[in-house]
Design goal:
CATH class of the largest domain: Alpha Beta
CATH architecture of the largest domain: Alpha-Beta Complex
GO molecular function: oxidoreductase activity; zinc ion binding
Cofactor: Zn(2+)
Number of strands: 18
Helix content: 25-40%
Number of domains: 2
Radius of gyration: 20 Å
Strand content: 25-35%
Number of helices: 11
CATH topology of the largest domain: Quinone Oxidoreductase, Chain A, domain 1
Keywords: Metal-binding, Oxidoreductase, Zinc
Pfam family, one: ADH_zinc_N
Structural class: alpha/beta
InterPro entries: ADH-like_C, ADH-like_N, ADH_Zn_CS, ER, GroES-like_sf, NAD(P)-bd_dom_sf, Zn_alcohol_dh
Distance between the termini: 13 Å
Largest sheet: 7 strands, mixed
CATH superfamily of the largest domain: Medium-chain alcohol dehydrogenases, catalytic domain
C-alpha cells in the first residue's frame, strides 16, 4: 500500500513509499481503510525534524477517519462497513497511576500514531477496538478528520476549564484549536472573544461566522480589545482565557486581560520558555491550567457535539489527495489553509 513515511531524523526525508499492508494480529483489532487524515502542526515539525518524540522510520499522521474492512474475533461493537474515527493512542502501559485513573494521555509509555507507531497517512491502518470510535452518520469523513483536535479541545475547554453561562471567554489564536475552542465555549453559554494578529484576518472572519461575539486583531486593535473587555466586565477582566497558539507573547496578553480569580487554560505549545509573574498569580488568585492531548471521556463528549451540529469542523478544511502532500504541508505551514486534510485513496 501507499503511505507517507518519515524515513529518518533530520530536515525533510519524507516521501510516499510502498509499504506492507497491515493485517489483524489480535482478536480485539480492527482493520480500516483510511478515508481522510488531517495535517497537524506537529506533522510539520516532524517534516523538519524538530519534534523529539517521533521514531523513524514511521508512517506519519495521527488525525484520521475510515471504514472498517475487517475485524478480530473479539470485536463486537464494530463491523465491516462501520464508519470510524481513531484516537492517536496506539498503546499504553496500563499499570501507572495515570492509566489506572483513566488519564492515559499522561502515560509516559504511551505509543502515539505518527510518532512511535504507524499513523494515518496511509491506505490502511490496524487499531485495537478500544481506541476506535464510531463516526456519526451525519459527519463526513473529511469533517470527521478533525475529531482528534476537537477531542483535544473538549478535554481542555469542557473537562479542565470551569466555564459557566454568561462567562466572558477570551480565545487567543484563531487556528484549528482556537476555532474549535470558540465553538465549545459558545455551546457552554459563554461569550467568546477571539484574538488574533494581522496574519489571521481570514481566520478572524471565520471565527465571527462560527459564533464569536467579538474578534480582535491585536496588532491593530489593542485599545479596542481593552474597550470591549472594560464594557463587558465593568473593568474587571475576562473570566477565562484559552491559550491556543504557541507565540510566547500571547501568554502575557492572556494574564493581563484575566480578572482576579480568573482561569487560564493553555492548549498551544510554546516555541520557547515564557516568563511568568508568579506574584500576580498569588495576589490575583489566578488558576493556571495546562492541557495535553485527549482521553476517552473527551471523545465521548466531543462526538455527540459534532453529531448535533453544536460544533462545525467542515469550514476549517481544505482537502487534497495524498499525492499532493507537499502542497498540503506548505499550505499548513504558511497558513494558506486552516486545516489541510489528505485523502489517501485519491
Amino acid at each position: 500500500m501507499k503511505a507517507l513515511v518519515k524515513l529518518e531524523v533530520g530536515e525533510g526525508k519524507v516521501s510516499i513509499k510502498d509499504v506492507d499492508e497491515p493485517q489483524i494480529t489480535r482478536e480485539d483489532e480492527v482493520k480500516i481503510k483510511v478515508k481522510a487524515a488531517g495535517i497537524c502542526g506537529t506533522d510539520v515539525e516532524i517534516l523538519h525534524g524538530k519534534d523529539a518524540l517521533f521514531r523513524p522510520p514511521v508512517i506519519m499522521g495521527h488525525e484520521f477517519t475510515g471504514e472498517v474492512v475487517d475485524v478480530g474475533d473479539r470485536v463486537k461493537e464494530l463491523k465491516v462497513g462501520s464508519r470510524v474515527v481513531f484516537e492517536p493512542t496506539v498503546g499504553i502501559c496500563g499499570d501507572c497511576r495515570y492509566c489506572r485513573s483513566g488519564r492515559y494521555n499522561l502515560c509516559s509509555n504511551r505509543l502515539i500514531a505518527g510518532f512511535s507507531a504507524p499513523g494515518g497517512f496511509s491506505e490502511y491502518a490496524v487499531r485495537r477496538q478500544r481506541y476506535v470510535h464510531k463516526l456519526p452518520n451525519k459527519v463526513s469523513y473529511i469533517a470527521g478528520a478533525l475529531c482528534e483536535p476537537l477531542a483535544v479541545c473538549t478535554h481542555a475547554v469542557l473537562e479542565l476549564t470551569p466555564i459557566y453561562p454568561g462567562d466572558i471567554v477570551a480565545v487567543i489564536g484563531p487556528g484549528t484549536i482556537g476555532l474549535l475552542s470558540l465553538q465549545l465555549a459558545k455551546a457552554s453559554g459563554a461569550c467568546p472573544i477571539v484574538i488574533g494578529t494581522s496574519k489571521d484576518k481570514l481566520r478572524l472572519d471565520l471565527a465571527k461566522r462560527l459564533g464569536a461575539e467579538y474578534v480582535v486583531n491585536i496588532d491593530e486593535e489593542k485599545e479596542t480589545l481593552s474597550g470591549i473587555i472594560k464594557d463587558l466586565t465593568e473593568g474587571c477582566g475576562v473570566d477565562v482565557v484559552i491559550g491556543c497558539c504557541g507565540a510566547p507573547e500571547s501568554f502575557g496578553l492572556g494574564i493581563d486581560i484575566l480578572r482576579k480569580g480568573g482561569h487560564y487554560t493553555q492548549i498551544g505549545l510554546f516555541t520557547r520558555d515564557v516568563s511568568f509573574p508568579i506574584d500576580k498569580m498569588s495576589y490575583h488568585e489566578l488558576t493556571l491550567q495546562g492541557s495535553f492531548g485527549q482521553k476517552n471521556s473527551a471523545w465521548n463528549r466531543a462526538l455527540p457535539l459534532l453529531e448535533k451540529g453544536l460544533v462545525d469542523t467542515l469550514p476549517l478544511v481544505t482537502s487534497l489527495p495524498m499525492s499532493k502532500w507537499e502542497e498540503g504541508f506548505k499550505m499548513a505551514e504558511t497558513k494558506q489553509a486552516i486545516k489541510v486534510v489528505l485523502e489517501p485513496g485519491e
